[in-house]
Amino acid sequence: MVEQTIPTNQQTPVVIRSADYKTVYSNLYRTRVGNGELTIVFSRATHTPSFLAEGNLIEEQTEIVMTWPQFKMLSMTLKSLLEAIESEVGPVEIPSGFLQNAAPGAESQRLAVKGLGLVRIPAPST
Q1: Single pTM value for the model
Q2: Contact 45, 27 (CB under 8 A)
Q3: What span, in angstroms and rounded, lies between the C-alpha atoms of 123 and 118?
Q4: Distance from C-alpha of 19 to C-alpha of 98, rounded to nearest angstrom
């Protein structure tokens, strides 16, 4: 492991990489919502070794857990990035096989969140 010297007199944050940092390929994902957090599990479709090489396995690669505010900021960033990409190269097409599952209906998402049994806490009165 390489020892890192981090300057302490800078005004902007210093970015370093964890020893656990890695890049993974993902062509599938699923989400899981919890009390104040969201988990995104990134996976890859693959197959058991055979002559036919049928895509019959989903190999989970990694998961990211974030708070709801972080999730909202990520969502805003990804939306604006997609808009920028599409303005330069045209629409990003979703393969028809994935289209049905690409964006579950708002009602099914709401039911998943409702199932958590969360209670809205009123803002303190001033």
Answers
A1: 0.73
A2: yes
A3: 15
A4: 35
